[in-house]
Amino acid sequence: MLKLLIVDDEQIEREGMEAILHKSFPDLLIDQAKNGKIAVEKAKQLNPDIILMDIKMPGMSGLEAIEIIGKDQPMIKFVMVTAFDMFDYARQAIKLGVKDYLLKPSKASEIVETVGRVMKQIEEEREALIKSMIQEEVLQKTLTVVETDVVTQLLFDHVHEVHLDMLVELLDIHSTNEMFVMIVILPSGSEKFYSQVKQIVRETRSGWIGALYGNHLPIIVFRDREKSFRSQAVHLAREILSISYNDPSSNWFVGIGTVCSSLDQIRNSYQDSLLATLVTSVPVKYRFYSDLSIPGDIREFKDRQIEFSDKIRLGHWEQVQEEVMNLILYFEKEGVALIQAQQRILEVLWITSRVLNELGVDSKMPLYPFQTNNYRLLSSETSKLLQSMKNSYLEHYDRLEADTIHQIKHHIIQHSHEDISLEQLGKKVGLSPIYISKMFKEKLGINYIDFLTECRIEKAKKLMADPEKSIKEISFEIGYHEPNYFSKVFKKNCNISPKEYRKMLLGKRD
């Protein structure tokens, strides 16, 4: 319900206007004020949408009242009512934001028309505001998806249709020249705390938060030049860990990776942060990778850790086995103490287990059943643990439906015009995005993006047979938001531009 205040020192004028307006706008709530001073007080109480303000009144003038009210309540629409058709008054009123004016004496039709016009403007502004709020809400939800997608691409080397640089530009937290990764380890069943962690990161505007993988949550944090690296990381870690006060299990932990100078190197920091979380039985619930005592041999292995993790993801277990066994042989050759070697190999096995958890494979944390007393036994027990993890990996994918690849293929064909991501496909069929990418290449001899592109191109070719559709319309209809980009993709795949193809197609029909 809209509210209107009539301000005039003449009672007959006020009551006459109210009667006219009430007849034409029965739902309009109307109140009166006999001078500017009372109008100021009434405006505070009523919070009107429209004020019909007489200009010449004893005491406080209408223009003075408009200025005072407008400062406190800028959304109010003022209509000037005066018997003086004078330029100076009109000029001052315009400066104060008066939307319209009425000259005394006014016809009933003029009053109704003027107030109706202002009421329509208010309704349009409210509709625009609601639409803007809805769009903002949709945008925020979209940006949340974009943020997790960016983190996924950076840390796990996923390939998506939308280029990473384009996604980064959409985010409201812009990257800096230095960054590092923090991994928050959550206890089982603590998914409910995900939104709280995300809220803390958003409030600090310090980084991008990824999706929850198994029980760990990756965060890419951008360096704050006004703080030291350690103070910034400790402050954010403590803020996040403060959430755990409401969690009875309190098995939270934060691993903090090293600082790197570009997003291209961020996976190194991610691997460092993983190593920092391997042993959580420390007095404080966070650890810097740089505080770990890691001998040169393990540091050398860490440099190959990304490649090692990819071998696990791709199921190249013979290579994984060979690399771990070679590490054991290296320790034996160098005369490393057996207990220390066993701990270092266990750290490598933990990394393997973490990668499996990322893939959705239910794998128990590997532990040696006893302290080995020779290197031969260490090799034997390590092989058993690796075989157990390999079996979990194979069982996980053996449980999948035989026609999964056909389900995915059919879904992409049917929805190729939409923004389909590997994550969405993964949720639909219960597979990890990495496995879907691998399966496409092995089963169809083509990667996911190329298959999606082929579907769109084939659909575009069919649509081009309709001369009524423009190339721009076709590009939007098949799922490309940028016509120029569609033209480049089409030409790359067909060795001919869309316009040339259509000309050739329609020419053949003639």
From TrEMBL:
A Pfam entry, by short name: HTH_18
HTH araC/xylS-type domain location: 406-504
Keywords associated with the record: DNA-binding, Phosphoprotein, Transcription, Transcription regulation
CDD domains: REC_YesN-like (cd17536)
Modified residues (4-aspartylphosphate): 54
Keyword DNA-binding: yes
Record PROSITE patterns: HTH_ARAC_FAMILY_1 (PS00041), HTH_ARAC_FAMILY_2 (PS01124), RESPONSE_REGULATORY (PS50110)
Protein name: Response regulator
Organism: Evansella tamaricis
